[in-house]
């Protein structure tokens, strides 16, 4: 098993092909298709009967794992390509990892949860979106893009938990692909993680349903949502529905799951003052205490036309967030370039409570989750 400090979705480990030839070299064209096993074949064997679905007439099923609520006929996949109907039974991903990484929790990013702790992140394959700028496309676009696909390694829940404990991680995180579509497997891991005191989290596009959030509620402590914009036309380009994400954010907040929201700001896509204001005002209407992270786009995957997001845009977005009534706004992934917007600041006395440089916590002056100076309670998960 490779060290968890190495992402298994690294492109160097990618076979660069949707198939692996039996007895042959990875990436070599198969001379006889009867002698090949596809990535789809491998994944179809790493499955179990799902929980998040209902049977329909004529052996169809309806899946509730994500907002698409796919109606799937026998022998076919859902939009995610990894949940499929086998003879009237929904089969779901199980028993493997395609990516592992040991990170500071600030990289997820969670800024109001266990600052300075380590998170063991794991991912499977597949996604219910097809974002052209996806930074995890090698895992998320498996079965959709012939260049994507990271070989899955068999793992058990016990192995994940043992790795987390060995490397002194406090948090287990389901990420790298869309965790909602592999929720049954994540819950299996999280049940064991909870028994040994680990914190559990999702890093998700937020395309949820009431059913999946009720299923996750007992087992997920922290939830990061990517709110990719505030225009349905833009969401349609990514394969999503804006309303589903907004509903998910509301449902997470009302269920008491700690939620932080990230918007990757892409020049020409979602960076107008009007759209950023709409995002900030929506979040403030749910709760002004929801942390909003605005982060910089860089050219990746199939989106190579826009310029990388300048720091000035992140600062502008952060100021819009505060003007809309949010109490905690962060301009991320540009260390040292966004002034005070990397830090957690007391909304009452304006003292710096958590000082950061990128994902590094330089100073933490919280006392029992409150401002060291004025005693104002700071929302989050601190102990």
CATH class of the largest domain: Alpha Beta
Helix and strand composition category:
alpha/beta
The CATH superfamily of the largest domain turns out to be Aldolase class I
Tally of domains:
3
Coarse shape: globular
Q: Give the SSE string.
A: EEHEEEEEEEEEHEHEHEHEHHEHEHEEEE
What count of helical segments does DSSP give? 9
Radius of gyration from CA coordinates: 21 Å
* Assigned CATH architecture of the largest domain: Alpha-Beta Barrel
Q: From the structure provided, what is the oligomeric state, counting identical versus distinct chains?
A: single chain
Q: How is the biggest beta sheet arranged?
A: 8 strands, mixed
Percentage of residues in strands: 15-25%
Separation of the first and last Cα atoms: 32 Å
Instruction: Report the count of strand segments.
Output: 21
CATH topology of the largest domain: TIM Barrel
Low-confidence residue ranges: 1-35
Mean pLDDT, as a whole number?
87
Helix content: 10-25%
How are the strands of the largest sheet arranged? 10-11-13-14-15-16-17-18
């Amino acid at each position: 098993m490779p060290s968890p400090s190495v992402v298994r979705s690294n492109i160097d480990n990618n076979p660069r092909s949707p198939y692996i030839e039996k007895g042959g070299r990875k990436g070599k064209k198969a001379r006889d298709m009867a002698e090949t096993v596809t990535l789809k074949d491998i994944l179809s064997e790493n499955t179990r009967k799902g929980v998040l679905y209902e049977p329909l007439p004529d052996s169809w099923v309806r899946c509730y794992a994500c907002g698409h609520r796919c109606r799937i006929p026998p022998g076919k996949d859902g939009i995610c390509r990894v949940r499929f109907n086998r003879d009237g039974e929904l089969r779901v991903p199980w028993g493997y990892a395609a990516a592992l990484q040991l990170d500071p929790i600030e990289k997820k990013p969670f800024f109001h949860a266990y600052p300075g702790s380590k998170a063991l992140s794991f991912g499977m394959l597949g996604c219910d979106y097809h974002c052209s700028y996806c930074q995890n496309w090698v895992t998320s676009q498996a079965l959709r893009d012939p260049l994507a696909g990271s070989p899955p390694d068999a793992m058990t829940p016990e192995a994940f938990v043992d790795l987390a404990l060995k490397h002194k991680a406090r948090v287990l995180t389901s990420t790298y692909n869309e965790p909602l579509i592999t929720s049954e497997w994540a819950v299996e891991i999280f049940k064991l993680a909870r028994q040994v005191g680990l914190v559990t989290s999702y890093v998700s596009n937020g395309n949820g349903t009431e059913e999946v959030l009720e299923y996750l509620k007992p087992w997920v402590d922290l939830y990061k949502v990517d709110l990719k914009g505030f225009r349905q036309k833009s969401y349609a380009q990514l394969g999503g529905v804006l309303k589903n994400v907004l509903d998910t954010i509301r449902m997470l907040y009302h269920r008491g799951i700690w939620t932080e929201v990230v918007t990757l700001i892409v020049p020409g896509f979602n960076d107008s003052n009007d759209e950023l204001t709409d995002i900030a005002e929506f979040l403030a209407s749910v709760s002004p205490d929801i942390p909003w992270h605005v982060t910089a786009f860089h050219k990746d995957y199939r989106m190579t036309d826009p310029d990388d997001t300048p720091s000035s845009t992140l600062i502008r977005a952060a100021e819009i967030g505060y003007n809309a009534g949010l109490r905690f706004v962060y301009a991320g992934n540009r260390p040292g370039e966004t002034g005070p917007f990397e830090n957690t600041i007391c909304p009452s006395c304006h003292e710096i409570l958590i000082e950061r440089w990128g994902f590094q916590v330089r100073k933490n002056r919280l006392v029992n989750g409150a401002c060291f100076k004025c005693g104002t309670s700071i929302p989050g998960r601190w102990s």
